[in-house]
Amino acid sequence: ELTSDAEGTISFIRGSPELLDDISSLGISIGSEITYELNEEGRDNQFSVVINDERLDISREMANNIFIKI
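^ thats the sequence. predicted structure below, dont judge the formating
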């Protein structure tokens, strides 16, 4: 389970081909450094992530399919 301010290196990404395409289109890939934060607007189904110094909002489904090594 992800918690706010979890930080690490992406080690594995899983999901349907469509989900993997969506994740890849955001520039999220294995080996990237990533920091998870709870969405500032308080939406339970959204996470904000920082990857390559860029903040992105991603769905909980995406976040739950991105595995990081801390």
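The beta strands are 7-13, 33-38, 46-51, 54-59, 66-69.
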